[in-house]
Amino acid sequence: MKFWDSSAILPLVIPEPGSQRCLPVAANDPEISVWWGTPIEIASALSRRYRDGSLNVVEFAAARREADRLLQRSNEIAPSEQIRTSAMQLVRQHPLRAADAAQLAAAMFAFGPSPTVVEFVSMDERLRAAALAEGAIVYP
Q1: Contact present, 104 and 90 (Cβ < 8 Å)
Q2: pTM: predicted TM-score of the whole model, two decimal places
Q3: SS3 call for 121
Q4: Burial (0-12, 13-18, 19+ Cβ within 10 Å), 15
Q5: How far apart are CA 76 and CA 58, in angstroms?
Q6: Is residue 101 within 8 Å of residue 5, measured between CB atoms?
Q7: At what angle do helices 19-27 and 6-13 cross, to 10 degrees?
Q8: Which domains, from first to last, does the chain contain?
Q9: How far apart are CA 107 and CA 33, in angstroms?
Q10: What is the mean pLDDT of the chain?
């Protein structure tokens, strides 16, 4: 099991430069975990690409179906006081946006109360750096 942030899931559902790097990681991860807000972030990113013309109506519909399929089989980490507290600590320690801190906090929570290994999949450089600083194994 690996924790996937939305920047790594998006290349699984639409062709992007990161697709070549994320697809092999996904093929070896039968049980992905995601943050509660990830479906919202994916919907936002796909809608933004549709509005700006990067995706046509057929591509947009196919990407939404693929995202839904992928997210339905994922392990979703729900909001909690522990995740909020951890995210607040992370924004003080790293230059993260609020949603990115929540994703990293959810990742750490997904692997148990005192995880020895956190496997984190992200294409966001700032989030990758924070995850590495927190001791996570970062893919791709």
Answers
A1: yes
A2: 0.91
A3: strand
A4: exposed
A5: 28
A6: no
A7: 100
A8: 1-140 (3.40.50.1010)
A9: 8
A10: 95
